[in-house]
Write a structure and sequence with these properties.
7% of the residues lie in helices and 54% in strands. It has 753 residues and is mainly β. It starts with a helix and ends with a strand.
């Protein structure tokens, strides 16, 4: 079936091979502008509207950062993105090796394959359905675009909160290569390299790869080893072929192997320690899960991307085909327990496959009166998740809560279109929409483990009224008005609807908690200004927004399994309201110096809680009024005092200031200091906002000092991330806290040939 889909996609594209070239914008000048970017958002071309545009011309809350700026600011992994943009925060998800991106208060800390993230991650336009594969080392990057707010039309796959679009480097037209090595504390080592090898005038190839090895910073006083380490490697090959003067075929294949861990730790006498004695579980669990190394998350991702671009008389046509396979396994102790099977151990072995096919066309209508983009999108996903939870306190026998395999599929089809109507030389009306239909299916299979306390099947779920199939169809429109007040000042206002499909809470083992939840939708309204002054030496962008989310999908901690083991049911417990401001500025007062600053204000709150939540709140208040306590307090989205909690991972203020300065010291050598400072206000990491899950906020300082010889292609630098060793809470499970990584310093040497 997969082969036939590929053949169909390529065969359909071949019908257009003879198409005549269309008059289109020359992308070479824009690429050159991108390469000159030395800071956040300066002179960067983005594809937020599925075509190349200057960032300043896009009426969307989008920010971008170039590859060079990422390195200068010591943001060498996707977690580094969390400190670069307004109203964007988050952390690594416990137990999954994945990133939890929070944009304008919408986030996801659940990695079950029956749950989707409100912040979509895309690599070269290909949607990554599983968050387990989004925490990769940034290698072979051209730039990264961060779109805030729902992307309901052009990037419409489940993006109610926003989208992270990673744009990879394309093969160069000239022979060239680069190699970089680094060493840092915790005995961290890395190598990166790439080579461009054109074959004649019409075929360009590129090969790149990386390797990294970093010891953990947590000392395990039970086993004598270290925890919270990070290792990995990756390779990517890309080919760009000019099939004719009008047709280009870009193909890439990549594989990433990532190993990391994040477990609870305690700081004692200035050092981080853990007590877990977790080992392989062996016959306690079924299948391959028993052989997984303790306190390890191992993700292997393989991807294939094909993009056929045709410049035809009717416009630019693209056929984009993507396939990704992920194999993920982990064996983690969520309690800090010296037992050989942990205190609360979660173990999982899963396989995930996804295929997507998109065809779109963009161009002009009526002699330039309108610009348009329209397309069709198909997505198929298959997940096989074998997982269980083992619980043990003291010296008692291990208790297996459930041992099961869940198979689930998604089939999604969408049609979309967007039209920019140039009503006058200065006024543009944008109208667009996307129609999406999703079909999700689930099959629940018991693994037959005699130790398990619960043995659920499809029939058990059906008897409890839990459907095994979900369907949803939704239309998500977009309307925007853009006014070019002066050549350097653009005003805009927009209204956009977003959609995220529903799912099942498969981690639960009781049918009252193991239920389905509905799709999530959002209406977002934005208005702002994009401006440049003093011959583009100063840019200033301001966006105001208001968003209302219906049926917000919330992962809470108000449930327990049949054994009393904590579970985190996902449900539509409330609506959600978010509004605020985002400001971004870039200053280039003199040659070589780029200064950037951004700030975000975000007010969030739950709205219109469900009757079940109101009943829980009433029961809590009644117990408190009688001078007692109740399990209804401090669970779900109800605080201990009976009030509605603040939304998860939604700091009210975020802000970053930074600079990069290229200072010539000789005719060929220059010194380049770079630095950034990030501030995040208080937030909570538990749905019920318990006192032990609240963080007062934090600040982060990062920077580097480089010595460069651009003519000789040499760069030597030393830098640090979290230079002041700021520590903040990233998650809490059953009273055990997970903390941010400590200070890291790194020395690098890079050579370009």
């Amino acid at each position: 079936m997969m082969t036939s889909r590929w053949i169909m996609g390529v065969s359909a594209a071949a019908l257009f091979i003879g198409a005549q070239p269309a008059l289109a914008q020359d992308a070479a000048d824009e690429s050159a502008a991108t390469e000159k970017a030395s800071g956040v958002g300066s002179d960067i071309v983005v594809t937020a509207q599925r075509r190349e545009q200057s960032l300043q011309d896009v009426p969307i809350a989008v920010s971008a950062i170039s590859a060079d700026a990422l390195v200068a600011q010591e943001a060498t992994s996707t977690q580094g993105l969390l400190r670069m943009f307004p109203n964007v925060s988050g952390a690594q998800i416990t137990g999954a090796g994945a990133n939890n991106y929070s944009i304008r208060g919408l986030s996801n800390a659940e990695t079950a394959a029956t749950f989707d993230s409100p912040v979509g991650t895309y690599i070269d336009g290909i949607y990554l359905s599983r968050v387990n594969s989004n925490n990769f080392a940034l290698f072979d990057i051209e730039r990264i675009e961060v779109m805030r707010g729902p992307q309901g039309t052009l990037f419409g796959r489940n993006t109610t909160g926003g989208a992270i679009n990673v744009v990879l480097k394309q093969p160069g037209k000239e022979m060239g290569a680069s190699v970089e090595g680094s060493y840092g504390n915790y005995d961290s080592k890395s190598l990166r390299g790439s080579i461009d090898m054109p074959i004649g005038e019409h075929i360009r190839t590129r090969l790149s790869g990386y390797w990294m090895d970093e010891d953990g910073y947590v000392k395990n006083i039970t086993t004598g080893g270290t925890e919270n380490d990070h290792d990995g490697w990756g390779v990517r090959g890309a080919v760009s072929i000019d099939l004719s003067s009008a047709v280009t075929w870009d193909i890439s294949v990549d594989h990433i192997h990532d190993e990391n861990s994040l477990i609870p730790a305690t700081k004692v006498d200035g050092k981080w320690i853990s007590r877990t004695g977790l080992q392989k579980l062996g016959s306690i669990v079924t299948g391959k899960k028993g052989d997984i190394e303790p306190n390890r998350v191992i993700n292997d991702t393989t991807g294939v991307t094909s993009k056929l671009t045709i410049d035809a008389s009717i416009g630019t046509i693209q056929f984009i085909t993507g396939y990704r396979h992920l194999r993920s396994k982990f064996n983690l102790d969520y309690f800090d327990n010296p037992s050989t099977i942990g205190g609360y151990d979660s173990v999982q072995y899963s396989k995930h496959n996804q295929f997507s096919q998109e065809a779109n066309i963009s161009g002009e209508l009526f002699g330039g009166v309108a610009d348009y983009t329209a397309g069709l999108f198909y997505f198929h996903e298959y997940n096989d998740t074998d997982f269980t939870t083992v619980f043990r306190l003291g010296s008692g026998a291990p208790f297996v809560d459930a041992d099961r395999t869940v198979f689930n599929t998604t089939d999604s089809f969408a049609m979309y279109g967007q039209f920019d109507w140039h009503l006058t030389d200065k006024l543009t009306l944008t109208t667009g929409g996307r129609w999406t239909t999703d079909t999700k299916k689930m099959h629940y299979e018991d693994n037959g483990n005699p130790r398990a306390s619960v043995h659920l099947t499809d029939q058990t779920l059906l008897n409890a009224g839990i459907p095994l199939t979900q369907t949803a169809s939704v239309f998500t429109p977009r309307v925007a008005l853009t006014y070019q007040a002066t050549p350097d000042v653009m005003l805009f206002a927009s209204a956009t609807k977003g959609f995220k499909s529903g799912g099942w809470n498969v981690r639960a083992t009781t049918t009252n908690l193991l239920g389905d939840f509905e799709a999530e939708t959002i209406w977002s309204f934005e208005g702002g200004v994009r401006s440049e002054f003093f011959d583009r030496k100063v840019t200033f962008n301001l966006t105001g927004f208001y968003g209302y989310t219906k049926n917000l999908q919330i992962a809470t901690a108000n449930g327990a399994s049949s054994a009393g083991v904590p579970v985190f049911p996902v449900g539509n417990f409330s609506d959600f309201r978010s509004y605020g401001l985002e400001a971004e500025a870039n200053f280039r007062p003199i040659d070589g110096l780029s200064i950037f600053a951004n700030a975000g204000y975000n007010k969030t709150e739950y709205a219109n809680p469900t009757p079940a939540v109101l009943a829980q709140q009433a029961a809590c208040e009644a117990a408190l009024a009688a001078g007692g306590t109740s399990s209804n307090c401090g669970g779900g989205i109800i605080r201990l005092d009976g009030t509605i909690a603040a939304p998860l991972r939604a700091p009210k203020f975020t802000g970053t200031v930074g600079f990069s300065w290229d200072v010539p010291v000789t005719d060929t050598w220059s010194v380049v200091p770079s630095s950034s400072f990030r501030y995040v206000s208080s937030f909570n990491v538990n749905a019920a906002e318990l006192p032990t899950t609240y963080d007062d906020g934090y600040s982060l300082l990062a920077g580097s000092l480089a010595l460069e010889n651009k003519d000789a292609g040499m760069r030597f630098s030393i830098g640090c991330e979290n230079c002041t060793n700021s520590i903040y809470r990233v998650a809490t499970i059953a009273g055990y806290s997970y903390w941010s990584p400590p200070r890291r310093w790194t020395a690098r040497a890079r050579f370009d040939f």
